[in-house]
């Protein structure tokens, strides 16, 4: 008995002590498709990419866990009080926002070169160049840059949107590393008028600076508290402390984590085993599922070893629906018809999903707006599980049971079978189990499901997700997105106030935009165009309420639930902390503060303030 007690004390002591080399090993269930060089997210906007890049690049300003904006690359956050923020009335109801920034004199790249307005200018040039397939079209369409000198610049946003004061949208790129090749890519793109070809040229350019081969050569520079040292595809991404990073944590940087290793284990069951085995110090925000985090398998072994927390996130789990009728399968299944989409949601037992996989701790969502958001409208059309109503709607559209029980109809002399493709991230156990659960729901109303999963780097890459118009996916695309404080409905918007199609990715616009399924509604667009300009919260809430009503009535997407994440980390690890709306609840913001208590790191943030313990 004494020997067992001593052994437990030793194991507990090791957990508190942390690694001898002051390192941190993070387990992730996804691998980024690219890192570092994809500065305008032309190739990927994966969550795991952003989480890791928090270590590598310092933001201009940072929203911390308490939703306070702090300066990082610049000397001050623009405010009216310091005369760095101005509103200018452009016309009734429309204002221009002007923000003055000064880059810190000690802000440098990892090679010692000062960060300058040349770097900011390159970022703006990349985002605003015709043919660059950036997803952040709203910002670049509204933003202009005025460089005053090497350290001072002004960003103007016209029209000003309600969230422009709350989130950081201004970034920069290493001009001395990327400029020469950028000029070549821009010149090549200017030789063609084909938007898809231009997008390909620019994607090749960004890939050149963001693939493992280039990054492993040591030629990329970084501005964050860590630099990338090695990327072994499918295995690990390694980073080390950047001695040139200018912000020093309390007590000195030597007391905080010096080396970070991401271990890529895409099967979440295998990742859970690695955590239990002691090979992982902390779980990424893209790691084990919520039910795995609260499983007896983990919680029974956590005491003295791990902290496990439930943290609400703004990540919206949902199914995009391909509504591009130029795709034959979409046209055959009538996915552009609201009755079809209503049938698909009525036939899905979403309440059963939350009970089966989350013990009812998640609730079914009815729109993309999180309940914690002040814009949330609870009074929208809801679709309880009703297979009989689903059958009725499908019958009205001409579907009849075939010999095998699967619905079919005749189209242009062809017999079309109702089989819908469903794609999601391979290895995500919860999503794959949801597919099986719903496939059985659908079989009962005569719908067959064809599962077509792939690694996250494929499914969430722009070449796949943004090309629904070309049939890369033809039915459902299952993933999560987060808008956080910048939730403005842009992922369901079709046209801006001038009537241009800028939010739906198509060949004509180089596949820019975030409305991947192609749903369009004129009233929704009109209301959204008013809402983004509306700084009065109550008036904006009215506009958002009607937008959500339209969205739900039309079944623009199939909403499932908002995620809560299970945050798992070793006892004694400090400041690896998440809060709901801080940088999409990533635990890696202000990464210079992450450290081990036993090495002298000081606690700045307490996870207890932002989540609930799982025991």
Descriptive account of the structure:
This protein is 29% helix and 20% strand. It is α+β, with helices and mostly antiparallel strands and 615 residues long. The protein has a domain at 316-562: Dipeptide-binding Protein, Domain 3 (Dipeptide-binding Protein, domain 3). The strands form 6 sheets. Strands 12, 16, 17, 18, 19 and 22 form a 6-stranded mixed β-sheet that branches. Strand 13 (400-401) and strand 14 form a beta hairpin. Helix 3 (117-128) runs parallel beside helix 5 (175-189).
Q: In CATH, what is the class of the domain at 316-562? A: Alpha Beta
Shape: globular
| CATH topology assignment of the domain at 316-562 | Dipeptide-binding Protein, domain 3
By DSSP (H or I, 4+ residues per run), the number of helices equals 19
Radius of gyration: 25 Å
Number of strands: 22
Main sheet attributes: strand count, strand direction, barrel closure:
6 strands, mixed
* CATH homology group of the domain at 316-562: Dipeptide-binding Protein, Domain 3
Structural class category: alpha+beta
**Distance between the terminal alpha carbons, to the nearest Å?**
26 Å
Could you report the average pLDDT, rounded to the nearest whole number?
A: 93
Into which percentage range does the β-strand content fall? 15-25%
CATH architecture of the domain at 316-562: Roll
Q: Summarize the amount of helix as a percent range.
A: 25-40%
Stretches where pLDDT is under 50 for at least 5 consecutive residues are 1-17
